[in-house]
Write a structure and sequence with these properties.
- This is FAD dependent oxidoreductase.
- Belongs to the MSOX/MTOX family.
- Keywords: FAD, Flavoprotein, Oxidoreductase.
- Its cofactor is FAD.
- The structure is a single chain.
- This protein has a single domain, classed as FAD/NAD(P)-binding domain.
- It has an eight-stranded mixed β-sheet, sandwiched between helices.
- By secondary structure, the protein is α+β, with helices and mostly antiparallel strands.
- Helix 1 runs parallel beside helix 6 and helix 1 crosses helix 10.
- The radius of gyration is 21 Å and the shape is globular.
- 26% of the residues lie in helices and 28% in strands.
């Protein structure tokens, strides 16, 4: 319990891991964060909203999401009002959606099934869907203010005795006899450690290429856009649920307190390859156009938005962003020790669906650190596991992973 643990990255995995370690009695936990402002403005864990759903075909994630929602709702001393239980309207006739529905029913959640789009429109008049659309409303879900939740949990970590070091980028691992004993930072700072938890999200494949992590995951940029509503407009849409369509990949949120509606497509995304490794291209690395999304993707967003909210789709985008994920081939997380250096623990591979688990995901990492993780999960999340299935949650989008074309970005003039 007195061992020095250094966590690289103050996002979803890193902050939750620090919290659970401190809750278990660990005495020396330090998070090193590359950004000098917090939460980092280009981190995927810093956003106005993230979907909170139990709707997974994999029973493990469905059950874990239910546990997370319990914390989102009950642990108000940590989360305050960051969680909003708007319900999640799950659409689409895919196998993914059907099996997710079966798991939601099996868990005894509050489910309302819609066999026809007319009943959806009757329940939520602002929503406009094609006549062949069907789905179900899971009342036990909604969305969370990701940036706010990350900040609140970090404050809790600090109150428990954890340390947060900002503005230092880890650049090297200092080893002795094959074991990492310190982390070197870009400013020359050396931080000694007994265990390094690499929780650097989409920067993981490029931060220490010598670890061979690039073979295990890929940094992908996911486009999203926002529309600013007036107070009068927002009132008409305030009580709609999160919409998540597994047949198209499109999803959008109810208006935030600032009357912003955000939308995106759950798709394979874009790569930004530098030296054979995909590296996030963000507003920090490219301040002039790091928030821009490809034009063709922007048009697809407009078309999907118009199919749901035709009146709002007439408005221009107020903001866009490429949100960067760290995708594993099977969408299972990567939580486990490096096969040749047990002093390195990975906690990453969020694959675009980790944030909802912020209250509980660190407990899995803590179990892995203490050697008590269920052997089934140990294999499921192993760094060098054999990939036996692929992620099919994004199949409905009809989009394919592409290299980002920086000459075809949608800027303010579009």
């Amino acid at each position: 319990m007195n061992s020095k643990i250094v966590i690289l990255g103050a996002g979803c995995f890193g902050t939750s891991t620090a919290y659970h370690l401190l809750q278990r009695g660990f005495q020396d936990v330090t998070i090193i964060e590359r950004s000098d402002e917090f939460p980092a403005k280009d981190a995927s864990s810093n956003d106005i909203n993230r979907i909170v759903r139990t709707s997974y075909p994999d029973p493990f994630y469905a059950k874990l999401a239910k546990e997370a929602i319990h914390s989102w709702k009950e642990d108000v001393d940590i989360w305050g009002d960051s969680y909003h239980e708007s319900g999640v309207l799950v659409l689409g006739a895919s196998d993914y959606a059907h099996n997710a529905y079966l798991n939601d029913v099996q868990q005894g959640l509050r489910i309302e099934q819609f066999e026809q789009s007319s009943t959806i429109r009757a329940s939520f008049p602002p929503i406009s869907l094609s006549n062949d659309t069907r789905g179900y409303l899971n009342h036990d879900g909604g969305w969370v203010d990701a940036g706010k939740a990350t900040l609140l949990l970090t404050k809790k970590v600090i109150s428990l005795g954890g340390k947060l070091i900002l503005g230092k980028r880890a650049t090297k691992l200092i080893r002795k006899e094959g074991t990492t004993q310190a982390v070197g930072c870009d400013d020359g700072t050396i931080v000694e450690t007994s265990l390094v938890v690499v929780a650097t999200g989409p920067w993981t494949p490029s931060i220490f290429p010598e670890l061979g992590y690039n073979d295990n995951s890929l940094a992908t940029g996911q486009g999203l856009a926002m529309v600013q509503l007036s107070e009068e407009e927002a009132m008409l849409y305030r009580d709609v649920p999160v919409i998540l369509n597994f047949s198209t990949g499109f999803y959008c949120f109810p208006p935030t307190k600032d009357n912003i509606v955000k939308m995106a497509i759950h798709a394979p995304g874009f790569t930004h390859t530098v030296g054979n490794i995909s590296i996030p291209r963000t507003v920090i690395s490219h301040p002039d156009d790091g928030l821009f999304i490809p034009k063709t993707y922007a048009q697809r967003l407009r078309d999907e938005f118009a199919a749901v909210y035709p009146e709002l789709a007439k408005k221009g985008f107020s903001n866009t962003r490429l949100c960067w994920y760290n995708d594993s081939p099977d969408s299972d997380w990567i939580i486990g020790r490096h096969p040749t250096d047990p002093s390195i623990m990975f906690a990453t591979g969020g694959s675009g669906h980790a944030f909802k688990f912020l209250p509980v995901i660190g407990s899995i990492v803590a179990d892995a650190i203490q050697g008590t993780l269920d052997p089934v999960l140990e294999q499921k999340f192993a760094f060098n596991r054999k990939i036996t299935h692929v992620d099919d949650s994004r199949d409905g989008s009809g989009l394919f992973r592409k290299e980002l074309d920086v000459n075809d970005l949608c800027g303010p003039e579009n």
